[in-house]
Design brief:
alpha/beta; Rossmann fold; 2 domains; 8-stranded mixed β-sheet; 15 helices; 14 strands; about 20% strand
């Protein structure tokens, strides 16, 4: 099979969608699927280019002052690449809209992969909502990273073929090397971690939807500030940064910028818990990656997190936007008597149930049918 894969989130950069996109493309190419990736609005090039790869090519189209120019330029490049058997849109707005359009013009089937913000956010935006609806209406098949989103799309489009295509994590990539263990110990030492003081990690793009200020209010309500330290790795919105800068309303924290993926394992392992108190969510890569390092989740029930976490067994779950429940879940985590045993269950669960092979199998079946 030869696939045209359309996205605005590749090569991988700062963000979970880019990580997922690269993982899926590379995995399919390793399986012998020819995949040409068409990147619309590529931020790292000044003119359109085609970079040949093993198993396909990366077709990079830069941002244009007139959006239609990029789309038309992309179509010209696609026509010059030969015949495709299928078109995939990664994300239901930009990627999905162009995928179903180009698939129709090429006379082939199309798959739209729903990640999170494309349904939770873009659906409601006048600028992108029409693109999402067109993608859903025209797609041959639709994949979504959460069962909750599968149900929501089916309710809107009862005749559509919608299936669960969860993210994955590669267990081998997150095994701790001696350098990772040294980094873990260094960070825990800087934060003064121990039996009475636990480290809670906040990783990734900490945007407004992540609801970090809301969770910190719950921590203060229960007087837990002295019992925790925060390890913050990634970017912060202005409101969260302002709170963390004030020692009167936030626990002591260590803040680090985005780092290379091969540096993350030691940082994940430095945390006892990972907190993701989101209002809405897809299936966060940082959650899977942290769990693969044995980090115990404290998370809301948004998106796939309710599907991933068994409360009290593989983490601590609370109702989204329920501040009292968020505080209670954090307190239960801090007072749990066997964190070492739970850590091992978390690691085994996520690496067994959400393997890369399972993700690629789901994608292949969605395209092949």
């Amino acid at each position: 099979m030869r696939v045209l894969w359309i996205t605005d989130r590749y090569p991988p950069g700062k963000g979970g969608m880019a990580v997922s996109c690269a993982r899926q493309v590379r995995g399919l190419r390793r399986r012998g699927v020819g995949v040409d990736v068409l990147v619309l609005g590529a931020g790292n090039v000044f003119e359109a280019s085609v970079e040949e790869r093993d198993g396909g090519a990366d077709v990079l189209v830069p941002v244009e002052t007139e959006p239609a120019m990029a789309s038309n330029h992309a179509w010209i490049l696609v026509q010059g690449r030969g015949r495709y058997d299928h078109v995939v849109g990664f994300g239901a707005s930009t990627g999905g809209f162009h995928a179903v359009t180009f698939a129709a013009w090429l006379g082939v089937g199309s798959t739209v992969l729903v990640r999170g913000n494309d349904l939770d956010r873009d659906w409601f935006w006048p600028q992108k909502g029409g693109m999402v609806r067109e993608a859903f209406a025209r797609a041959t098949s639709i994949g979504a990273v959460t069962l909750e989103k599968v149900a929501r799309i089916r309710a809107l489009y009862p005749a559509a073929r919608v299936e669960w295509t969860p993210n994955s994590v590669d267990a081998r990539r997150w095994e701790l090397l001696p350098g990772d263990e040294a980094r873990r110990d260094e960070v825990r030492g800087l934060l003064g971690a121990g039996e009475r003081v636990r480290v809670i990690g906040l990783f990734g793009e900490l945007k407004a939807k992540k609801r970090i200020p809301f969770w910190l209010e719950a921590v203060r309500d229960l007087g837990l500030m002295e019992r925790i330290r925060l390890l913050v790795v990634g970017t912060l919105d202005a409101a969260t940064a302002a709170i963390l800068d004030d020692p009167a309303i936030a626990p002591r924290s260590l803040r680090l910028p985005f780092c290379a993926p091969d540096e993350l394992a030691g940082l994940y392992a430095a945390a006892d818990f990972v907190a993701i108190p989101s209002m809405f969510e897809g299936m966060p890569n940082v959650l899977l990656e942290a769990m693969a390092c044995g980090v115990i989740p404290i998370v809301s029930d948004a998106g796939a997190m309710r599907e991933l976490i068994v409360d009290g067994e593989t983490g601590f779950l609370f109702a989204s936007e329920d501040r009292a429940a968020a505080g209670a879940a954090t307190l239960r985590a801090l007072e749990h008597g066997d964190l070492r045993g739970m850590s091992e269950r978390v690691r085994m669960y996520v690496t067994t149930k959400f393997s890369l092979d399972r993700e690629l199998d789901a994608l292949w079946q969605l395209m092949e049918r």
